[in-house]
Prior knowledge:
The chain has one domain (about 20-170): minor pseudopilin epsh fold (3-Layer(bab) Sandwich), CATH 3.55.40.10. A hairpin with a 2-residue loop joins β1 and β2 (about 85-90). The termini are far apart. The chain is built from 3 helices and 9 strands; from the N terminus they run ααβββββββββα. The protein is an alpha+beta fold. InterPro entries: N_methyl_site (IPR012902), Pilin-like (IPR045584). Pfam families: N_methyl.
Amino acid sequence: MPPTSGTRTCRLTAEAERARGFTLLELLVVLLIAGILLGIGIGAVSTGKNALSGAAQLLVTAALTARSRAMLCNAPVTLRLSPGALAVSGGPESLWEKEFPRGVEAVSVNSRPLAGGARSVVFQPLGLVREQVVVLRSDAAELSVYVPATGSPRVLEGRYTLERIRKEYL
């Protein structure tokens, strides 16, 4: 007797069952592998940016230290920048020196290149300083550290000049 519409059964052949799709386990394995590869790729890119951010924070800390020391001692304090390092000194004594993280370099101060040389930023006893823009570069990107006359630095993404900062932020 032929089946009626309510009792109709459908059987798939073995070949049709295999062609239905992926199992949950197969999908999870693919997602796991994709996640691992994505994590490795993002980690490689963010390492350069982390080093650059670390260098910018190092420069901000150095500027704040120099400003505080100048106000505390009532004497000028110098922040000296070279392509691979910075130093804070008050008078003849060096307060501290730090190197930038590997792969990061200071490129310019107020649009003047640092290649092969160094530049000094002098904080006066009242904590004031001439406006400065220091550009830091790594393989991943560039950051600018703006030190206004009041001496409180700010980190900006990309390459900035004093003129551009005055137009966009002041």
